[in-house]
Here is the input.
Amino acid sequence: MTIKYRIIHKTEYVYDEPASLCYNEARLAPRSLSLPMFDQKCLDWRITVDPTYNDYRERTDFFGNPCLYFTVPQTHEKMIITAVSEVIITPSWDKDRTVPRADLLEKDAKNSPSWEKVRDQLQMDLDVGTVEARQFMMNSPLVFVTPEIAAYAASSFAAGRPILEAVYDLMQRIYFEFDFVEGVTTIATPLAEVLEKRRGVCQDFAHL
Here is the structure.
């Protein structure tokens, strides 16, 4: 069953002092993509800005997201950005069944390759998809793997365990062992602190 959504995203900035000029990048357009569980197609997308913008350019960023650059050249004390999108979602169906692909996730997890095999493929294969995925194995300023974090994950990754099963187990552990508490972390809170306190918000758990 295909479902059509109309999405309205509104952001309002209110400044302490008037701004004479501002430069902006907006990533508010849904991507058209195909995933194992569903297909997503963006039929239409438009953005309005108050006060009116000019000098705009559209591009696609490194991750494939539509990106709009624009300038507001006049003095203003607040700015309102409204994005309106129309998106169609079509579930993917298994060819031999009449149930959504999500119903087969448990079976798929057990039949997925071992995490060691996937690790080795990421190190050695040179196809475009693998090379692009390899960057997510690296540390970054906000996601730095410590021995404690590696040890926490290791209990989900027993030798020879299918990778999807291991990843699902790790996600379940984070869900049940950590508390969602607003205000106890910031974007710069080290992961080691999140692991120690077992508290945080979505960005902390995603980084972990």
In short: The CA atoms of residues 115 and 163 lie 4 Å apart.
